[in-house]
Amino acid sequence: MDYSQFLALKQEIGLLIVFLLVFLYDTFCSPKAAKSVPVIACVLMAAVTAFGFWQSCQPATSAFAGMYFSSPVIVAIKNILNVGALIVLIQSLKWANSEFTSIRRGEFYELILLTLFGMYLMISSRHFLMFIIGLETASLPLCALVAFDKHRYESHEAAIKYVLTAVFSSAVLLMGLSFVYGIAGTLYYQGIASAIHGNMGVMLAVALAFVISGFGFKISLVPFHLWTADVYQGAPTSVTSYLSVISKGSAAFAFLVVLTTVFGSVYEAAWEWMLYGLIILTITIGNLFAMRQKNMKRFLAFSSISQAGYIMLAIVGNNGMGVSALMFYTLVYIFSNLAAFGVIGAIENATGKIEMTDYNGLYKTNPRLSVTMMLAMFSLAGIPPFAGFFSKFFVFTSTLNGTDSTALYVLVLIALINTIISLYYYLLVVKAMFINDSENPIATFRSACSERLGMWICVAGIIGLGIVSYFYDYLLTVVA
Amino acid sequence: MFSNILIYFVVIPLVMMLGLALCRNIKQIRAVAVTGSVALTALSVWLLVDYLALRAAGATEPMLWVDSWQWFAPLNINLAVGVDGISIAMLILTGIILITGSFASWEIPQPKEFFLWLILLSTGVYGFFISIDLFTMFMFYEVALIPMYLLIGVWGSGNKNYSAMKLTLMLMGGSAFLMLGLIGIYYHSAADGNLTWNILEIAQNDAISHGWQKFLFPMTFVGFGVLGAMFPFHTWSPDGHASAPTAVSMLHAGVLMKLGGYGCFRVAIFLMPHAANELAWIFLILTGISVVYGAFSACVQNDLKYINAYSSVSHCGLVLFAILMLNTTAMTGAIMQMLSHGLMTALFFALIGMIYGRTHTRDIREMGGMMQILPYLSVCYVIAGMASLGLPGLSGFVAEMTIFVGSFEHTDLFHRVFVIVACSSIVTTAVYILRVVGKLLYGPVYDEHHLTLTDAKWWERVATAGLIVCVAGIGLFPNFFADLIKFTFSPEIFTVIGLN
User: Fold this and answer.
1) In Å, how far is A462's CA from the nearest CA of chain B?
2) pTM exceeds 0.95
3) What is the ipTM of this complex?
């Protein structure tokens, strides 16, 4: 065996080293020194992120007989996920050192790093066996993470729901893949693609339906979304934020890779229309349910369902611009959503309040938190000059790129009208904080240093990512 | 980038916002707001003088000070700027209303946040008027819309939560159609594959096929038309204007509604003249309804702000109506109407705000004999009313006259019938204006408590007098404004469609 192949896995190996270091330190250090585990994890994660950026100019390589593949695009999406994971880790510093979590704070960081490792494999694989290994490595630690607040009943409930959904969706996906194997006789992406070669059959249609449903569970597309709100609400806020951005982003990218490289030849015959219906359902139903939510975490859960629909818009156009639009959308979504979760987490840590009515009059007592939340909401709603506007715009342009298809114009119009619905409920949060009066507002408090750092990074991203054209241009050049 | 004068229309508001963020007391805030808006107005006046000089010297380009800086290179998105007579007129209008608006909100609570949002709004407005790139235009358009939500929600009165949400969602709904229209225009902007967002280049390429024009024209026209209060998308306007604080009503009715008319002209009609010619009848019907229905609705309202808001629907409907006539005279009239209505309605809202601040009611049934109590404000109100109903010598007459004469030039019977129908709004306007003047200003004093009220303070006099001078200025020197905007109607777009 040629051991030099492992050099292609530099980023994965880097992440594993960080994992091992955190694990060993956490296991063998004195209980007093264990307090610094979160900080060490953050610093090491920052190092991995920096290393990833340094790697970004590496040429495309493959390893293990083509099962593993890395290219500048893949490095870029991994970097995006790294940045998001880093922000999550920073934001959860205070929570990790709190009374109930402190005895197992090491586990939180270790499990997060492990799931990230699984997502790396998922993105990089070019063989479905490898892909499934990555998927399971990403899913199972997340189940443990969802159950992390073991003193809370909701956390258990959420974890059970998540385990069942994860297992079920994996089973559906595997079912689809076994059909694919039946058609193609191989599990290599390339091999399957050349075996299909545009031949649409009943078998393939069923297989594709299973595969798309399997992914639909992971990305929480409607009608596979029913687990989302309960899990988001029950899981600890730090885990929810990780689940909503990193997990979703990586699954969306893997979905894109599978659809375009494996099933690219049956785009018009099959999955354009499947996706078309899913997008309309996802965006609309996600929005309609989000309007009625009173709990901030449930609210963001439904908002993230509808956001997933927008991410899918980048795939349905099936062109190179869509890849960069998807990556840019993920990047912006990470910053916007983490800003929102940062505020929610800070308020929850300080006061334990999580209902939208608790936010009434927040601007009078905590102006900075309110402004951060407002920026996050505007960015999620796609209001210029914040990054969300640009990412939505690029997604729409990529969908319509090089096509005169009326159906796609209608799809974009539906998505655009849905942005108005989404604006309504995002404005409800703004209204609560800025306009509503409250007899019992959240008292003025000073959030922890780490929380503020996390929010500052997010705010910088929300303001800078769109106006500074460098980021999107970079993603486009990487794809091209 | 900073060698181009136009960019300062965006830079100054941004600097103002920075200054406001650093202010510690209300005096500093007022100073920043007034200095900044005076600077902006001075800049636009200077631009006007320079523009006229350049034109006199023989500059024949459709736009002057054209410049373009690359932004998102792969998508051909640039920050492209350029102005012509219409844009300059709109820039001056914005400046005047910003100054008077600052004076009108002299004693607003929470001044720092208020002015921050107000200036953010004006950044969007200025950016919109100087842009000639569809993307940046759209971006600034939305920047101008969203501060309205908080301005009405926090500082408004009455049913403010409902109005703020309604206004924001309806306007953003319009921009959803608009965005699709603009992306569609971009993808059909050039036959040779060099796609562009630049208005001038798209107009020159004239590559949008007939079929696509028919799809994209309604999208963009409705998109902008929502902001221009076109029937049946006008319902945000009465509620929104009635709930908004004074300066916001002024800026919104005075300037923001003009964004709609300007956009319809600059994007929908300028880029898709064929479809405009073919589909004009649909929108003529809708805008015709706006004109007549707005005027009739104003007759039966009792709230001063509602009366003025419906009157705005009627007058702004006239702007879109005239633009759709697709000839130079009517379009000149439309631009004059935009200016005239902007100033006049700002004056109205300023006065209503001042009266409301004293009497704490806007219901005309609960007021009377104001001429005895508040003579200065009442006289101003009469002047504004006269301008609105089209008294010669004031701006309204010039604008409406040009519009109706120009529209009647259209030889088509259908168009002429609609012009006559729209003309009837002049009479209705007189009815609701005189009704208010009679009930509110003359007659016996309704409420004895009103006898103790004091007349306008100095800052209020500055605001109203400034606006009256402008209204009379347009009325007395209409030629100047007609000349200013005449270069804009580049003959090409009309020859393309075989008109004029």
Assistant:
1) 15
2) no
3) 0.91
